[in-house]
Amino acid sequence: MTQTITVIRGDGIGPEIMDATLHVLDTMQLGLQYEEADAGLVALEKHGELLPQATMDSIRKNRVALKSPLTTPVGEGFSSINVELRKRFDLYANVRPAKSFPNTKTRFGSDVDLITVRENTEGAYIGEGQELSADGETAVLTQKVTRRGSERIVRYAFDMARKIGRKKVTVVHKANILKSTSGLFLKTARKVAEEYPEIECEEMIVDACCMRLVMYPESFDVIVTTNLFGDIISDLCAGLVGGLGLAPGANIGSDAAIFEAVHGTAPDIAGQGKANPCALLLGAAQMLDHLGLPDKATRLREAIVATLEAKDSLTPDLGGSGNTMSFAKAIASRV
């Protein structure tokens, strides 16, 4: 296989974890070619804009991108570069797995293995219709949910569950109060669920879901929900398995897909070799699944687990004395 992917090295610790990730992928001899593109502060310094047209063209051409964390400067440009990318490429499905790993700091041992599927393009999170009154006393935000957006994200979740052998999809909502927006999402979800009789469909109000996640995370399989709820729930789930350093994310649309580490740029440790590359490596595993290489994705995940079990060259956040690249090399030696 020969496949060209767009590589966005990002800001802060981004270049370090990207170098580590590409080292492991190169060891796997997958035939991947890399086309580098800039975004974030690096792009602003080099090209005078946060999201250059050349970067957009590269993603549109290659249809697959691997992205490190980006910084969106406060007070200028987009509210979020990530949100802007999702809008421009209609990356409607945000897929965030949360799975327990050995030798990580967590309360739940090996009991967590769930996936949050979050609608990515509408709802309160997008920030449409924001207004502040002239006297600064009243703020207004418009929240829009569509039947089309709800149907395609719920269908994505059920199709994914069917494909990978998951048994239950939990539809998370607040339709008891938000009867228009969340109500439309729930009604649409119920209709879609009827087409998948072999998969259990569970409905849960978002506050009850959060409580149950921290008490009985093993009771969840796949969660599907709207944008803002999904943003909160997916970070909660990352906390169940040791934090954002182990949290990958996929943003998937009909014509493009971007895979990433969902944590921030961590400028306080940038350039020090302390950054844990696991989140981006796990994002790369999601990318391999998307490219039709599930066996390779499994090998990569298994190598990460084996390295954690062996406590081989782990980064300081995992209790080790290794660095970003030594950790990556230890994973590469097992892949």
From TrEMBL:
Name the domain of life: Bacteria
> What is the E.C. number?
1.1.1.41
Q: Which biological process, per GO, is one annotated for this protein?
A: isocitrate metabolic process
Entries under Pfam families matching the protein: Iso_dh
Q: Which SMART domains match?
A: Iso_dh
What InterPro entries has UniProt attached to this entry?
IsoCit/isopropylmalate_DH_CS, IsoPropMal-DH-like_dom
Instruction: Say yes or no: keyword Oxidoreductase present.
Output: yes
Q: Does the keyword Disulfide bond apply?
A: no
* GO molecular function terms listed in the Swiss-Prot or TrEMBL record: isocitrate dehydrogenase (NAD+) activity; magnesium ion binding; NAD binding
Alphabetized, the UniProt keywords read:
Oxidoreductase
- Stretches assigned to the Isopropylmalate dehydrogenase-like domain: 4-331
What family does this belong to?
A: Belongs to the isocitrate and isopropylmalate dehydrogenases family.
Name listed for the protein in its UniProt record: Isocitrate dehydrogenase
